[in-house]
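Convert to structure. Protein one:
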Amino acid sequence: MKGLDCVAKRKTKHVCQECGYESARWMGKCPSCNSWNTLVEEYVAPNKANQLTAGGLQSTSKPEKITAIASEKSPRITTSIKEFNRVLGGGVVPGSLVLIGGDPGIGKSTLLLQISASLAEKQLSVLYVSGEESTQQTKLRADRLGITADLLYVLAETNVFDIVQHIKESKPSLVVIDSIQTMFREEVTSAPGSVTQVRESTSEFMKIAKTYGIPIFLVGHVTKEGAIAGPRMLEHMVDAVLYFEGERHHTYRILRGVKNRFGSTNEMGIFEMKEEGLREVLNPSEIFLEERSQGASGSTVVASMEGTRPVLVEIQALISPSSFGNPRRMATGVDSNRVPLLMAVLEKRVGLMLQNQDAYIKVAGGVKLDEPAIDLAIAVSIASSFRDQPTRAEDIFIGEVGLTGEIRRVSRIEQRVQEAAKLGFKRVICSKNNLEGWTPPKSIDVVGVNTVQEALKIGVIK
C-alpha cells in the first residue's frame, strides 16, 4: 500500500522544449512561444534540483559595499588563434561560461579541439569532455589535426556529477563540454536534452566556473531556425554567446559574438576549413572581394563594421521585369524588410519605376550585414541593375538612407576609409556630415553627398 501511495502522489508537469514554459496539463500550442506540439511530460522530483544547487556559493555570501570591494583584474588567457581572441574581446576570461552554437558538421568540435590544444601547448591543463564521441573517436580527430599536446585530457562522460568531481580533482585551466544537450543530472527525472536537464546542467557548470575561476566552454545544438536549442534563458545564464556560421559546402566559417559581458558584441572572426583543420583568415576583405566581376551592373562595395573591425564586402542586386502580379523581393545576407523600403525611396525620390520589377539582393561571401550604413550601397546596386549601368570598380558607398532620400552620417568613418585605402580603392561616397573633424588618407578621395540622387549621379557610370 505504501508503494501504491508513492506512485499515486508522483506529480508530473508539461514543459515546452522551445521556451521552457511549464503547465500542469498538456496543450497542443504553447501559450508562451506559440509553438505547436512542444510540450513534453516530465516527472517532478521530490527534491527539486534548484534546491540542491541553491547552497554552496550563495549560502556563504553576504552583501558588501561596492566601494569596499577590491578591484581585481585577472589577466585573460590568450590562445594562439588571434581571430578567436578577437571575438572574445582579447582572450578567455577566467571563470567565464561561454556558449558556442552552430549547425551540425560546421566545425564546432574541431575549433574547440584546436583551441584546447593551443592552450595545452602553453603548459595549461585542459579537460575536453565529450558526450557524443568516445575517447578513441576524439583521438582520431586529434591525429587528423596534428595535435600532440600532453596536457590535453579527454573524458567521455555525460553524468554531470562525475564531470564535476573530475574538475574538482584535476583543477584544469579550461574545460570544454561537448555538448550540453547530452549532459544529465541523476536527480532530474527528465531525459537528457530536455529543457530541465539543459537548464540544471548549465546551472551546475556555472557554479563550478564562478567558484573555482575555471573558464568553461559549452557546445550547444541549434534548432532548424538557427537558434540554440533549449530554453531561451540559457543564453542569459552564460557570459558569452558565440555562433559558428557558414555553409557546410563552402570553406569559409564565421565565428560571431552576439553576447559578451567582457568585450564588444557583434565581433566577427573568419576561418577557412582545411583538411588539417580551421585556419584563421587575417584579412577577410580580400577574400570577399577576390571574385568580384569588373564592369557588371548591380555590384557595389560597402565598408561595414563588424564589431571593431571594418570589413569590405560586395553587395549584388538583380532587377528584372516581373512575370506575376506581385513582384518578388528576395534578400540574402541583409534584412529582407529593408529592400522594399529602399526601393520605395528610389521610386518616390529618384523616379525609378520599380513597382513592376522583381528584386534580388545578395551579400557575396555569405556574410550577414545588419547595420544602417549599408543602405546607400543597396540603393546604388538596385539603381545600377535597373538602369543596366555599372558603378566604378574603385568606389566605396557608405551611408544610411532616410525616407526623404537624404544620406545620414555613420559611425567610425575613419576606420572604414582607411580599410578601403589599404585595399586600393580610390574614392569613398558618403554623407557630407561625415567629412567633419578628421583628415582622410591622401591616397583616397572622400566625396560627400546629401541625397541618394546625388550619389547616383556621381557613382553610376552613364
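Protein two, convert as well:
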Amino acid sequence: MTTELASSRRILIVEDEVPFLRMLHTNLHRRGYAVQAATSGTQALNLAARQRPDAVILDMGLPDMDGFDVITGLRQWNASPIIVLSARTAEAGKIAALDAGASDYVTKPCGMDEVMARLRAVLRDTRTNTDHPVVKTAHFTIDLAGQQVIRDGKAIRLTRTEWQIVALLARNPNQLIPQHRFLAEIWGINDINNNYMRVFMVTIRRKLEPDPTRPRYFITEPGRGVRFLPDGPPRTLKSA
C-alpha cells in the first residue's frame, strides 16, 4: 500500500542542514518517492516552478529567507501540501505557519516513521473523491487530481483561493453554488463582503474565459450564486 501511494509522487525537501537533508532524501527514495532537494528558499521556489511537487517538506529556518516566505510564495500558485519540519516550538509560530498555508507542522527532533506517516496522510488528502478528476471545456482543462488548469498545454497560474473556487465549481458542473457555500467551504465563515467574492470571479474569468466581458463558463446569477457550465451556457441562460 505504501509503495502504491509513493509511486510517481514528487517530493520537494527544503532543508539547509545537509545531514538531515540526506537522511530525509534517503528514506524517501527507499520508499519509492521521486525526490528533489533545495537548501535555500530561492532554490525551492525555482524547483517548484519548474516541476510542481506533490508535496513539500519545509524547514522554516533557511539561509536566504524565512520559511513563511516560501509558504507564501508557493501558495500564490501551488496547492500541494506543505509539511513544516522545524525546531521552532512556540504555539504562535505553528498557528501562523498553518494559517499561511502549511498543511501540517512537525517539531524537530522527530522520528522518521512519524514524518513518513504525516506525508502519507497529506498525500491521501490530495486524492480527489470525485468521479470526474478531469473536466474539459473547449478552451481549458481542469485537472482536479493534479490541482491545476491547463490551457494550450500550459498550466494557468491561479492563487490558492482562485483554485479553491474553480475546483468547487468543477466538482459540481452545471449546478448553482450559492454564495454561502463558498463562504463556508473556502473561507470558513458565514458572511463576507459581496464585492470580495465578485473580485475573485473577475480575476478567474480574466484568466480562463475566452472573453471575460461575456462569460461562457463561469456564470453569476445575481442574488443566487455561481454556476460552472463546461459546455457553455444554453441560449436561454443569460450570463452576468
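The chain has nine helices and twelve strands. The longest strand covers residues 10-14.
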